Amino acid sequence: MAAPIGELITLRFVKQITVEFCPWERNVRSIRQFLSYIGNSKVRNTNQKCTLKTSIKHDGTNPTVHINYVDGQNLLFKTSHLSLSELVQKFAESNETRLNKEASES
Fold it and tell me: Which family, according to UniProt (predicted)?
């Protein structure tokens, strides 16, 4: 059985997440859901030093999630055509890569 979506998200390796969208656009459902999940106290407790910034625009801005990792790398999701499960899966894959790298170094 697959893990619930909320259990796939960890902020352990994340320095900052910036979520940007225009609430009046049709294609913001997945980014709103993602924002809800990462704002959850269980997820936030995986790294309390991670800052979460939300930028609400009223200019038709395409929804994006910018993830800045503690190792200096950045990840950008353009979420207008991504479902929540696709977004979480890609984010989890990026975290898993970092977890595997950390395990191999120790």
Answer: Belongs to the mitochondrion-specific ribosomal protein mL53 family.
User: How does pLDDT run across 42-52, given as a tens digit for each residue?
Assistant: 999 999 999 99
Neighbours of 65 (CB within 10 A): 23
Q: Dihedral through CA 39, CA 45, CA 48, CA 51, nearest 10?
A: -20
Instruction: Kindly report whether the global pTM for this prediction surpasses the value 0.70.
Output: yes
Q: Look up the domain containing 12 and give its range.
A: 8-105
pLDDT, position 32: 95
| Weakest mean pLDDT among 6-10, 20-24, 34-38, 78-82 | 6-10
The number of folded domains in the chain is 1
Q: Is residue 3 part of a domain?
A: no
Residue 2 included in any domain = no
Query: Phi, psi at residue 59, to the nearest 5°?
Result: -130, 20
Domain at 80, CATH number: 3.40.30.10
